[in-house]
Design goal:
It is a single chain. This protein has 769 residues and is mainly alpha-helical. The protein has 3 domains: 13-221, no CATH class; 254-378, no CATH class; 391-455 and 561-768, Up-down Bundle (Four Helix Bundle (Hemerythrin (Met), subunit A)). 55% of the residues lie in helices and 4% in strands. The strands form 4 sheets. A two-stranded antiparallel sheet has the order 1-2. It is elongated, with a radius of gyration of 40 Å. Residues 481-493 have a biased composition (Low complexity). It comes from Drosophila mojavensis (Fruit fly). Residues 7-18 have a biased composition (Polar residues). Residues 1-49, 460-497, 529-559 are annotated as: Disordered.
Length: 769
């Protein structure tokens, strides 16, 4: 629109405009004065991408500039209304008016920055009718809002990145505003517009322009990436409930949602600005033939992609895992040379619409289900799970009996005297007649520590991982708090501005944000298993060396003694080495849990086997022998029959019912966790140490039965063993009763497991009573 302003000699306060296109301009005199005021709008703390000025719109003292003016008191009410409508239309388009001025002293006008314009109040010449002024005052904030938004558009259009994206989207929104202003001017010229109609037409734009002005002011004052800016726009549209902000968010989010679409539907990361929340640490490994089977393992896929939650918009946070796994599984399938038809659906974000969520979930389900089929149907996952149950969890007693038979005297040797390659040859000879197609994946292994030390190391590793996650989360919260503080910082800085001396500025103090790091919850330790007081009997029980004592100082293998005080039956374990892609599920972490349970079960079965081979010399020795055998048998059967067998069978039944690979991973891990806590209890270090001490006492008692001693010495030793065994068993029973209490910190399943074991040991405990 072309606005022609009649010239009248007067000194006024005005706006300076430098808009492009068909928007109104103040003429050449404005350009003549621009040089001397080039730095008027600059302020401290502005982000580097807005280097031209703080904003293109500033207030200034014009001096001898000619402005239109009329003596309002001499005009009729109709003429006053027409004049006020004309000046309002000009002012709402950023053009200065002689009758609508900022309510600030002239000396403060030059100090107003662009991001403060929206807070400046305007007033109408008091000579206008009070009815007209009351009606029009409602719309006056549009002046500051418009100047703030338009100046951001002009400044950001010269920048790059997310600011430019917002500027382009704002231009489309503002075009509707310009069309409205042009229509209003046309109606005014045709005498078809009154003040009531003007207010009615512009009132809906008050909230829209306020929200846009508030948004652009905050974007100016912050250094945001695309995701953070999208989050900010989403917060504004939620707060203002503005439809045009929803459309704006859809437009600005187009680039980011395109990256989400490529990743979830193609497995491709296209992120030239490094603003996507997923980053590939091995961008050159996209080919299906680039990795060898040994390279392409679980640890590789765990570490290949980095996740930066600060680069994820808040409205996509609930779908973060689906987004991440969709692209990851597509790349896993690509490495498996699996052919499949990919999705090709346009993805966009529309506030209040869940269509993007449905598309993301569909994008995830396609590769997740395909990978499930590959693992279960092509890679025979159920057979692998059967093997783990048979080999590690003593569900195939024939194999374990044969294992102990084949190893023979090797189990009674010190671990330093054993050769792993010799033991492995024995294992291969045992398996040569097996029909298991995956028998070659089973290995024998000699551990460098006892079971309790291995448990302690694992607990420390898991604790360190959880602590690292907490620290990462705390850093994220601190970063978020910092950003929030930065958002409020410009408001705080304005307090020192001269214009703050007026009553018209509305500023809010920033709230102080305090991020408190979570303190790790101290583990609640139960009373240690009671040991007999007879110091002279300690030589009867094989004790671990000091380096294996479970204390807070038990550390890595660098503190291990040169001579390991471990026998073969304590150090021997099994290892399963599945190949890709089965190793995606059966990887080192869950296999270590199986190995821990196998070591305990193997030890109990070994002690039971040794006790069965012994013969008693008297009724009294026979009674103790029987109690020992029953105790070890009940402990083993509780783990194998009461705990492991039903849970593992439920796992095998549920695997064919699953739909996606994550269900497999979840089912497998939940079964392992449940079996471990039910067998070894939450106080696993205390309980397992008690079991091994009890088992070693039984082995020593078996040696006593085989030695040739006179009756008097035998009876004395028998008395010592009775006292030792009773003391150890009482300690175990007390631990179980403590964990079975309703007030204990353990879960319901663990309490029930402890009650089951107490029932199994009830007969022996009655004899002790």
């Amino acid at each position: 629109m072309d606005l022609k302003i009649p010239e009248t000699n007067t000194t006024q306060s005005s706006f300076r405009s430098n808009k492009t296109g068909d928007e109104p301009s103040l003429g050449d005199s404005e350009q003549r004065d621009s040089a001397k005021d080039e730095g008027a709008g600059e302020g401290a703390g502005e982000p580097g991408r807005f280097k031209r000025k703080m904003g293109n719109w500033v207030f200034e003292s014009v001096g001898g500039f000619y402005m239109p003016t009329e003596d309002v008191t001499k005009l009729s009410l109709q003429r006053q209304e027409e004049l006020l409508i004309r000046d309002l239309i000009y002012a709402f388009s950023g053009v200065p008016s002689s009758h609508i001025r900022p309510d600030l002293p002239i000396e403060q006008i030059t100090k107003v920055r662009a991001n403060q314009v929206e807070k400046v109040r305007f007033k109408i010449n008091e000579n206008f009718s009070s009815a007209f002024r009351t009606l029009a005052t409602e719309l006056l904030p549009l002046i500051g809002y418009y100047i703030t938004v338009q100046s951001f558009i002009e400044d950001a259009s010269m920048s790059t990145g997310c600011g430019r994206s917002l500027s382009l989207a704002l231009q489309q929104t503002m075009q509707q505003y310009f069309d409205l202003q042009s229509g209003l001017e046309t109606q005014l010229q045709e005498k078809k517009l009154d003040l009531h109609q003007l207010v009615q037409r512009l009132r809906p734009w008050l909230v829209t322009m306020q929200s846009l002005a508030n948004l652009t002011s905050r974007v100016r004052s912050l250094k945001l990436n695309s995701a953070q800016m999208l989050t900010l726009i989403d917060e504004h549209q939620e707060h203002f409930k503005c439809e045009r902000l929803k459309l704006l968010l859809t437009d600005v989010s187009h680039y980011y949602m395109k990256m989400v679409q490529l990743w979830t539907q193609k497995g491709v990361l296209y992120d030239v600005r490094r603003e996507f929340f997923i980053e590939d640490t091995s961008p050159g490994d996209m080919s299906s033939t680039s990795l060898s089977p040994k390279q392409c393992c679980h640890s590789y896929w765990m570490n290949r992609y980095c996740i930066y939650m600060s680069r994820l918009p808040s409205f996509l946070e609930p779908e973060a895992e689906c987004i991440f796994l969709a692209g990851k599984y597509l790349n896993v399938l690509r490495q498996c040379n699996v052919q499949m038809k990919l999705m090709q659906a346009s993805l966009s974000f529309v506030p209040g619409n869940q269509s993007h969520v449905e598309l993301i979930h569909s994008s995830y389900e396609l590769p997740a289900h395909k990978l499930y089929e590959v693992l279960v149907q092509e890679q025979n996952l159920l057979q692998h799970l059967d093997n783990l149950q048979a080999y590690f969890l003593l569900q195939q007693l024939d194999f374990n009996e044969a294992l102990m038979e084949y190893y023979g005297d090797q189990l009674e040797c010190n671990v330093d005297d054993l050769r792993p390659e010799k033991l492995h040859k024995i294992t291969l000879r045992l398996l040569q007649y097996s029909s298991d197609p995956f028998k070659h994946l089973l290995r024998s292994q000699l551990m460098d520590c006892d079971v309790t030390t291995q448990i302690t190391r694992r607990m420390k590793r898991l604790k360190a991982g959880r602590q690292e996650e907490k620290e990462t989360e705390a850093e994220a919260k601190a970063e978020q708090a910092k950003q929030t503080a930065q958002q409020e910082q410009p408001k705080q800085a304005e307090l020192s501005d001269p214009m703050e001396l007026t009553d018209q500025m509305e500023l809010t103090e920033p709230e102080e944000l305090v991020v408190q790091a979570e303190q790790p919850e101290a583990m609640k330790q139960l009373e240690e298993v009671k040991q007999p007081e007879q110091e002279k009997q300690k030589h009867l029980v094989h004790q671990p060396s000091a380096e294996f004592e479970l204390s807070s100082e038990a550390d890595d293998s660098s503190r291990m003694p040169e001579q390991l005080s471990l026998y073969g039956y304590e150090a021997l374990s099994l290892r399963y080495e599945p190949q890709w892609p089965i190793s995606l599920i059966l990887h080192d972490e869950p296999l270590e849990q199986l190995q821990l349970m196998h070591r305990v079960l193997f030890y109990l079965h070994y002690v039971q086997r040794k006790l069965k081979s012994a013969s008693s010399k008297s009724d009294r020795a026979e009674a103790l022998h029987k109690r020992m055998l029953q105790c070890i048998l009940h402990l083993e059967q509780h783990m194998t029959h009461d705990v492991i067998k039903p849970r593992w069978q439920a796992l095998l039944d549920d695997v064919p019912k699953a739909q996606f690979v994550d269900e497999l991973i979840s089912l497998f891990q939940e079964t392992l966790d449940s079996c471990q806590v039910m067998c070894l209890l939450s106080e696993s270090v205390t309980f397992v140490r008690s079991l091994f001490t009890l088992g070693q006492l039984c082995l020593n008692f078996k040696q006593l039965l085989e030695r040739q001693e006179n009756e008097q010495d035998f009876d004395a030793s028998l008395t010592e063993y009775e006292q030792e065994f009773n003391g150890l068993l009482i300690g175990i029973l007390e631990l179980l009763m403590e964990l079975a209490r309703p007030t204990s910190s353990c879960g319901n399943e663990e309490r029930e497991s402890c009650k089951q074991l107490l029932q199994r040991l009830e007969e022996i405990s009655q004899e002790l009573a």
